[in-house]
Amino acid sequence: MIENMKLRHHTTAQAARLVDQLVGLYLEVYADGDEFHSEDRYRRQLAGHMQRDGWDLVIATVGEELVGYIYGFPLPAETGWWTGIQEPVPAGYTDEDGERTFAISELMVTPGLRRRGIARVLHDELLGERAEERSTLLADPDNFPAQAAYRSWGWQRITKLRPSWEHAPTFDVLIRPLKNRAGPSSGHRTRA
User: Which residues form the N-acetyltransferase domain (predicted)?
Assistant: First the structure.
């Protein structure tokens, strides 16, 4: 882990002033990306996600520099998250009520600081006190380092999904039970 790194949670209102930094890191991470990873599409995604009830962002900084972040939100009853599933899942698997599943939308670390434990710390900080039953995320099946990390953190591949967004790739759907439901604070949590 990086010395002097700080984690901070942000609500939508608190994160509004960070949007350009969040987009900047996204563009750095996906510098070789295709149309799906464009600045315009990501700004629209981020703006839409920030309006979700329960949206939570955790950033990692060293000094004033943003070195990583993760964000997500609980899936509401009328979610489109599961639209595009390509393989069957058990009946009721995609039923949501706003309290069953927490969806992680983005987890990224600046390329020069990867494989130093930052992603894991961000992941654990975001999920550590969640009250939902489970968490889900969509992972690039060809991102082998991320897939290996997720498996080591307790994630399981359930199916594949291709979102309805323009130019969207097909993702692996990963699920992880949330064992620390409403557990005690991790001791290093800071609210902005």
Answer: 5-179
Count the helix, strand and coil residues of the chain and give each as a percent rounded to the nearest 5.
30, 30, 45
- Work out the average pLDDT over 150-169: 91
Angle at 138 between CA 112 and CA 122, to 5 degrees: 45
Decide: helix, strand or coil at residue 10.
strand
Residue 103 DSSP SS3? strand
CATH numbers and ranges of domains, the chain: 5-177 (3.40.630.30)
pTM of the model: 0.88
How many Å is the Cα radius of gyration of the chain? 16
* DSSP track, 25-67: HHHHHTTT--GGG-HHHHHHHHHHHHTSTT-EEEEEEETTEEE
